[in-house]
Design goal:
The protein is of the alpha+beta class. It contains 3 helices and 3 strands; from the N terminus they run αββαβα. It has a 3-stranded mixed beta sheet. The radius of gyration is 14 Å and the shape is globular.
């Protein structure tokens, strides 16, 4: 039996989280990278892409913390032992020419 890689485990966990998430704001996609944090600990860096129509009023801890918490839980439940860091963006934010 071939064991699933950590990357595959994280992808599966985040795909399941996206399918199950029914709350507001709407999650469009999860992107992630495996690496090390500033202290050298193994980490997963998750970028949660929210619908471009997400209003500024929806960018609150009350709305975003449950998404971040569910990502962390899903990755842990998948058996991945890494620190999980979650950030949020709109797809349009990632294409902002002002970021260069």
């Amino acid at each position: 039996m071939v064991r699933e890689s950590e990357s595959e485990q994280v992808k599966r966990a985040l795909d399941g989280t996206k399918r199950q998430w029914k709350g507001n704001p709407r999650v469009v996609e999860f992107q992630f990278n495996l690496g090390e944090d500033q202290t050298g600990d193994p980490s997963v860096f998750v970028t949660t892409l929210l619908d471009d129509a997400t209003s500024d009023g929806d960018w609150t801890s009350a709305n975003l913390d449950p998404i971040a918490q569910r990502c962390k839980e899903a990755i842990a439940e998948a058996g991945v032992e890494r620190w999980v860091y979650v950030r949020f963006a709109r797809p349009a934010d990632l294409n902002d020419p002002g970021d260069n």
